Amino acid sequence: MKNALISNYHTHTKRCHHALGEDKEYVEEAIKAGIKYLGFSDHSPMPFRAGYVSGIRMSLKEADAYFASIESLKKEYKKDITIYAGVEAEYYPEIFHKLIDFLADYPLDYMICGQHFLNNEEDSYYMGSPFSNEKILRGYVDNVKEAIDSGKYLYIAHPDLPQFVGAPEIYDKYMRELCLHAKERDIPLELNVLGYVKRPSSPPYPTRRFFKIAKETGNRTVVGIDAHSPAAFADYNSQKAIFNFADSLGITPEPFLKI
Ligand SMILES: [Zn+2]
Ligand SMILES: [Zn+2]
């Protein structure tokens, strides 16, 4: 069975400490799966204050090797696949400008916004844990709106990560605001395959309650595998489930994005 997917801009590498395999293996598995446009978007190195070490991303020092590896794979496989060098980066207001300055030294093709934490990572909320405080949802939506306004992001990864368990009207109000903002700025929203694969042990995204709003708002959408292992490319059943989910809401994900 061949994959319906011809692009994936959400691909990690072992540098984030929770993904497996060699960079080359991701490329080879993507080619086998029929992917034509492959973006690496590992969890971005971040210019945190001295002394803070994140366990879920490469260090600043590892950025050289990350981009060098992708540049070399671009050349090696150019006959078979178009490869892009990206990062998945939260919008952390206090250090965002430092991050952009840092990345300016590298051949970066694009960024995606996966807002896993509110405002910062050191003393903050993981958005995938259940919460009912409206202020946290307000903050999440503000972070993502500012990310969109920065003009630096290609799309929003798993926009429906927040596990808000408060009143449905409140969820609807804030997420509608997010969707409208993305629509006005022409920024696609991702239907995330990994959120499906990890069920039921992790936050259950993509969610019907979010993408119903996105459908009503008329948002652009794209499917992201969020590959944390080369084998993820061959998981056609999960990818198909995401396409079926989209279809059930009348949503048609875009086959590829312009970079
Ligand atoms: Zn990850
Ligand atoms: Zn990711």
Strand-pairing-aware structural class: alpha/beta
Mean pLDDT: 95
Helical coverage, percent range: 25-40%
CATH architecture assignment: Alpha-Beta Barrel
Radius of gyration: 17 Å
Instruction: Determine the CATH topology.
Output: TIM Barrel
Uncertain stretches of 5 or more adjacent residues: none
Order of helices and strands: EHEHEHEHEHEHHEH
Name the CATH homologous superfamily.
Answer: Metal-dependent hydrolases
Number of helices: 8
Largest sheet features: 5 strands, parallel
Oligomer state of the chains in this structure: single chain
Give the tally of structural domains: 1
| Number of DSSP strand runs | 7
Portion of residues in beta strands equals 5-15%
Present as ligands are: zinc ion
Outline, from the CA principal axes?
globular
Walk me through the structure.
This protein is 36% helix and 12% strand. It has 259 residues and is of the alpha/beta class. It has one domain: Metal-dependent hydrolases (TIM Barrel), CATH 3.20.20. The strands form 2 sheets. It has a 5-stranded parallel beta sheet. The protein has a two-stranded parallel sheet with strand order 6-7. Helix 3 (96-103) links the parallel strand 3 (82-88) and strand 4 (110-113). The relative contact order is 0.16. The model has no long low-confidence stretch (mean pLDDT 95). The protein binds zinc ion (2 copies).
Summarize the entry for a quick read:
This protein has eight helices and seven strands.
